[in-house]
Each structure stands twice: as structure tokens, then as C-alpha cells.
């Protein structure tokens, strides 16, 4: 309680108005940041002789007479609405003035958690999902900065400067994602940081969530989706590679009028006995399916030699007729020599 004085009402009014002109009080430090439950001590000093100097406070109120300084000291600060005011009653005008202590009482979050809203992993490629970050029991919320990370990259920053409660509160933030196959296995997390200024602890108090890994499902896609045309000789093995990427891993089905039996769930078809024709491979999973065709053209040895001989003839156009005549004459001599 402040000691009573015998200053008349009109004089007191004039003195209070004079506060805006000059006040001979200095609080040190002028701004203080205190962790919930920690001790605190602040000094108020008068720069001229004072009749009464004191602290007006819900807790630890105190005053002194004639001394030029007074301490406000609390062993454990737990009052969220505490606003200590240092006041002085002087011998000369202005006879009364006051200074308010700028005090910030803070508390780190009890927990920070991240989750998918109304869903659980895995997610489907191309669809919209919301991630939610919840911060429990933090103060002051106006000083809270909530950062979203994908891996080590910051993707979003949410502030709460528009809120006013001084007491601990629960807040949340949401992040919209539209995952694609490149996001499969991506790791998201959120981080709550109290930005309390230069007078606050350095580095700033920070609490992180656990990592949320996102599994992305997507339909099959071939590495080489174009139709493949292959030429094969009689004694070579044919390899038809239908490997596709998908999540869940795709199931394969081969169809062709040439196949004697269906080759199920084989990404690669190997066989020396594959005949000429069209072979269709279908890769599918729960999100879709895709097909790819392989066209086999079968060549015999004689057909290959004929093509080479024909190529030789037409590559030497000046002697093509001579070669043909020679072949005919040789053929005639063979016939004549036969019995």
C-alpha cells in the first residue's frame, strides 16, 4: 500500500498532468524477460530528493522514505498479469510521477506435434492434404513464430502477433500439400520459437515436433513407354523389359496370341522361343494401369544372307548386270555337268 499524503485534490491533478512533462525515475533494467517460475529483481532510482519511493504490485509491493532507490524482488514469478509500477512522491514539482516496468513472462510449449488432418499415411499423388502443427501451453503467444520444414528447407512461417492473451494458450497451424511421386518419403516437421527480443534468452527458446514421413502412392509409369520393335535371329534370346515404377509396386500381365501360357507378374520376359508377333505388357496397381507393346520381327539365316547379297549388288551398281550374268553361267555349267 502507498503511504497517504496530504496533497489537495486540485494540486494532485496538476502534478499528475506534469508527469507527461518529466519524471525523475529510472527503472533498471527498463525491460525484463523472465521465464515462468524464475526469480526477478529490478531497481528503481530517483534522480532528485524524494519523500516516498516505492513499487506498486500485486505481489512484492514495497516502498521507502527518503532513499533514492528501491528494489522490486520476487523469488518465483508466476503471475501472468503482473504489471509493476515504480512511483515517487517528491519535495518539489512535479511532486508525483510513476514509471511502468516492461516485463515479459514467458513459458516454452509443453509439446509441439505434427499430424495429417483426417487422414493417415500413405497419401495419393496429386490430391490435396493438410498437415497440422499443434503447440501446447505456450506464452506469450504474440511472440511465437512457428516454422514448417520439408527436410532442411523452410516452407512456411506462421506468426501469431494478432493474438493478445498473456497467459499460456494452445495454438495450431496448417500446411496445404499436394504430393507427387518425388515427395515419397519426404519428411515434414514444425518448430515453435519464442522471439523475445534482445533481453530474452539467446538463442531463443525452441521446441521441435517429431518428424512426419509421408509415403506417396502413385500409378505405374514405364521408364520407356514407347512401342518397341525388335528383330531377332533364330538362335538368339529375346528380352522384353516392361519394368515400370509405381507405389505400391505394380503387378505385370503379358498377353499375346503367340504365348502358349500367360506370363503373370514378370517385369522382364526372356525366351529364345518367342515367335514374331505383338506382345502386350500391362503394369497395374490400386491407382491405375498402363500398357506397353513389343513387336517382334523374326529373321532366318537364309533371309539374312539374301539381304546381304542384295545389298552387295545394289551397292555396286556399275557391275550389277555382270554379276547376274556370271551367276547364270555358273548355274548352267552345273546343270550340264549333271548326269
UniProtKB/TrEMBL annotation:
Organism in which the protein naturally occurs: Sinocyclocheilus grahami
Protein name per the record: Protein turtle homolog A-like
GO biological process: one example: cell adhesion
PANTHER family xrefs: INTERCELLULAR ADHESION MOLECULE (PTHR13771), INTERCELLULAR ADHESION MOLECULE 5 (PTHR13771:SF9)
Record domain Ig-like: where: 109-208, 220-297
Keywords: Signal
Presence of keyword Signal: yes
Protein origin, superkingdom: Eukaryota
Molecular function as annotated in GO: integrin binding
Signal peptide boundaries: 1-23
SUPFAM superfamilies: Immunoglobulin
tRNA-binding among keywords: no
